[in-house]
Amino acid sequence: MSSYARHVATNGYDLGALRGTFPAWSFFRSDAGTFYATRSGVTLSDEALVRGLRQTISADDLATLVALLDEQNGLR
Known about the structure:
3-stranded antiparallel beta sheet, 4 helices, 46% helix
C-alpha cells in the first residue's frame, strides 16, 4: 500500500497530494465523480500495452484508483 493510500484511508482525497505521489500521471475527477489518471508526456508502445500498462485508468473511488496506480508502477 502506497503512502498516499494510507493518507486516503484516514484523510479523504487530495488531488494535489496524489499528483505529488504519482508525478508521472495527470489526474482529474469527472462531474459524475469518477477519478481518472492518464500518463503525462508518455505514449505507450504496443508492447507495453500487451504487458498490461495502460495510458489512462479510471475508478469510481480514489482507493481503487491508487491501487491501480500502484499496480501500474509495478508493471514497469
